[in-house]
Amino acid sequence: MNLLHEDLARAQIQARLDAGREHRRAAEARRARRRNREERKLTLRTLLVRTRYV
Fold first, then answer.
1. If we measure between CA atoms, which residue out of 18, 17, 36 comes closest to residue 28?
2. Chain centroid offset of residue 11 CA
3. Residue-level pLDDT at 17
4. Domain span holding position 8
5. Separation of alpha carbons 12 and 9, rounded Å
6. DSSP symbol at 54
7. Helix, strand, coil tally for the chain in percent (to 5)
8. C-alpha neighbours within 13 Å on the C-beta side of residue 25
9. pLDDT band at 2 (very low <50, low <70, confident <90, very high)
10. Distance separating alpha carbons of residues 10 and 18, to the nearest angstrom
11. Which domain of life is it from (predicted)?
């Protein structure tokens, strides 16, 4: 019985760790997308500026 309880506790801890890791990964992906969007906007702006003034 005690062993079963320990396994259950270990499984719950592992699940919580996995959930935290997944949450961090998703947050990092969101940040990366935002960064990419900013970079795209900047490159688009520089292109527009270049074509307008050259």
1. 36
2. 25
3. 96
4. 1-54
5. 5
6. -
7. 95, 0, 5
8. 6
9. confident
10. 12
11. Bacteria
Average pLDDT over residues 13-28: 96
Angstrom distance (rounded) from CA 39 to CA 54: 22
What angle is formed at CA 21 by the lines to CA 38 and CA 30, rounded to 5 degrees? 15
Query: Which pair of structure tokens corresponds to residue 18?
Result: 């996995």
Report how many domains make up the chain.
Answer: 1
Map tokens 């969007």 to a residue: 37
Whether the pLDDT of residue 23 is over 90: the answer is yes
How far apart are alpha carbons 50 and 54 in whole angstroms?
6
